[in-house]
Amino acid sequence: MQVKPLELGTKELMDIYYLMRLGRAIEDRLNLLYKGGKLPGAIYLGTGQEAIEIGASYALEEGDVLAPTHRDMMSQLPRGITPREVFLQHYARANSLTHGKGEDNYQGDLRRGTFATVSMLPNFYPVAAGAALAFKLRKEPRVAMAYCGEGATSVGDWHEALNVASVHNLPVVFVVINNGYAYSTPVYKEMKVANVADRAVAYAMPGVIVDGNDVVECYREAKKAVERARDGGGPTLIEAKTMRMRGHAGHDSATYVAKDIIDLWTKRDPIVRFEAYLNEKGFLNEDSKKEVIDRINAMVEDAVTFAEASPYPEPKEAIEDVYAE
């Protein structure tokens, strides 16, 4: 197995930039479609979280598994999900990954090692721990990674998953995206600890805090944790401090967030910061940036057109693929 390096080269950096831009473009278009009444379901956007969404999952290798939440569509991009698949899902078409049974981001693809998202948070933490236990019992050099928000760390399942992973020294990486709000509840009303990562000490595992808007740092720390887990070092808890730049869902205008907070985090836009980094390194200029954006815009346009032209599922399909065979 070819393992990605800890320090990324030009190809990997530009690949990550492309994925961040692609994620932003897809979500911007989903937002417009939702506001225009074109989508039958809800949207849960991770705008502003591109660095941790993509940076952490990019650290995984083929054969590893990812357990994302409803807001983590962008974490699936490094795993191979396509713009067409994203829009087919949101349009609830028969040829979507859920065959029209879903109309939001509750999708996954086990062929790519991505679990389908569930609503109950953080239920995928125990699932990821279970996958990691299976890897260990089979003596397979594979790693599981699970995402959740800081609000979900108040749920018992979260603590149980960390405890089991610690006791059994499982190859799993737990990523907490601390975006400031659990729906409309600010962090200071959620917990007394200064950092979610401080809770790692209770489970005798490393607790790492990263700048959730610095994709290079997010990747580097995630890669360390992934390879530590693969080498038998056990689980790691990563807390990414960032900001959700849209409401909890498409219907939420997030008026509970003060304007000065939004202004502060707008200046920390992860894509703008990464562009400055790439420009300083000589990897990106205005021409190459335009080329990437134009290519992505064409892909998104194609995906929307394809989804809108695709058929709805037949009624009989409602009872198909409900149970595993």
TrEMBL record:
Pfam families with a match to the protein in the record: E1_dh (PF00676)
Keywords carried by this UniProt record: Oxidoreductase, Pyruvate, Thiamine pyrophosphate
GO biological process: pyruvate decarboxylation to acetyl-CoA
Molecular function via GO: magnesium ion binding; pyruvate dehydrogenase (acetyl-transferring) activity
Keyword Oxidoreductase on entry: yes
CDD domains, per the entry: TPP_E1_PDC_ADC_BCADC
Domain Dehydrogenase E1 component, chain residue ranges per copy: 20-316
Cofactors that this protein relies on: thiamine diphosphate
Keyword set includes Transmembrane: no
Protein name as it appears in the record: Pyruvate dehydrogenase
Native source organism of the sequence: Candidatus Aquicultor secundus
